[in-house]
What does this fold into?
Amino acid sequence: MLELSAAAAIAEIEGGRLRAADLFAFYRDRATEHGLGLEIGGLNCFTWIADEIPEDSSGPLRGVPLAVKDLFCTEGVPSQSGSRILEGYLPPYSATVVSRLATAGAPLLAKTNQDEFAMGSSNENSAFGPVLNPWSRTRVPGGSSGGSAAAVAAGLAPWALGTDTGGSIRQPAALCGIVGLKPTYGAVSRYGMIAFASSLDQAGPLTRDVTDAALLLGHMIGRDPCDATSLQFPGAIELPSAERLDWVRLGVPAELQRPGADFPGAEVQPGVRSAFERSLRLAEDLGATVEEVHLPHAPHALSAYYLLAPAEASSNLARFDGVRYGLRAEGARDLLEMYTRTRHDGFGAEVRRRIMLGTYALSAGYYDAYYGRAQRVRTKIAEDFREAFEGVDLIVTPTSANVAFELGEKTADPWSMYLSDYFTVPMSLAGIPAISIPCGLSGDGDGGGPSVAGLPIGLQIAGPAFSENRLLDAAHALEGAIGFDAGRARV
Ligand code: GLN
It folds into this structure.
């Protein structure tokens, strides 16, 4: 069962060679044995695991179980967004995507650990402890959907849901050697997702391969009357079939070649660079053309993102006041003290930092200088992409400048942590879809250095709004040519 992708498991169930209940029990047992807390030797990738085996499903996904990031509301099941302030919170309803997938035949197997309120790139900001990377247990899985990525890579769940605000699906997918797709903003309903930055948050699949990503996404998309920013996707998501890339002009953004020039410390590791270049050559072998494109404002994306996302977060997180949800500090003498003590005790250091940054950026005297300016940069970045897509079909970059780093390596230096998002935030600000697929391992004789040898590297492919089908097709063709074997991460 472990060898089966989700699509292959569906075929086995449909062919009567596998029972959905057995598959569910198999994954539930593996999740319980290897996915719980660090004190029992687990990866700490789950915050909750189902104990009951659901009834067989007649839906097209045939009962293949799904792991879901903690921040998706799931009726009667703890939904805490990785935060102490929501510890034990049991929502009275489920997020639209979770219910859509359950109806389609993907029942809830487990909730996955994450950075608190999805703020982070290493999963070390969770109130429930860090997640370990199954490729190397002294290293981070990436974040903020680190629990979902580690669970899929380790073979503790066939597939998982994550969310991506500035890279939180793509970067952990890259660091764990799996596929992660951030859809076009609005393609998937945000209803029932505990908000971080509402103009950026988007749910998407984390899967073993590109076909599974298409399969899961196909049942997530569509307008939802409960989310006014959701849109009807034009057409359906097709299962990818392309093996050639003759139909693709790939663009490599000139301005994103040397992150270290804009942000000292953000250099692309040599192993990542060579895996990226190898992928471009493979794309050419499959018939693609590769050319340089320009995204003149993209180097400013990180600065704009780290104003806009905290600004929205400071507003979204105002609702956690000790009155309506979760934690309430005891023994306060008045209402103000109750608010401040609850928020002090309930939020971790990174969340408090973002609330302070965001509140400052939105304050009357500074609003135009910071928030207003960042919004204008965001518009410029979206325009850059629109112009670039007049000359090429898809844009490619490494997903992350580095492979999985050591636990604790960047926790004392938020700035170096924020650099993890260098390649992923431009697409988030533009609202366009992007996928990360594994494109090799570091240290395969490519100068990656022995300390990082054998760790997965991600290739990011981005396209215009609603180009998911083309993106998946291109990723599928490249996946075939790359021939990445993720088996080593399975526990
Ligand atoms: N690492 C980024 C941040 O900390 C992105 C997080 C995300 O996409 N949720 O904000």
About this structure: DSSP finds 15 helices and eleven strands in the chain. The two ends are 14 Å apart (CA to CA). The pocket of glutamine is lined by residues 118-121, 144, 164-168, 196, 309, 420-421 (CB under 6 Å).
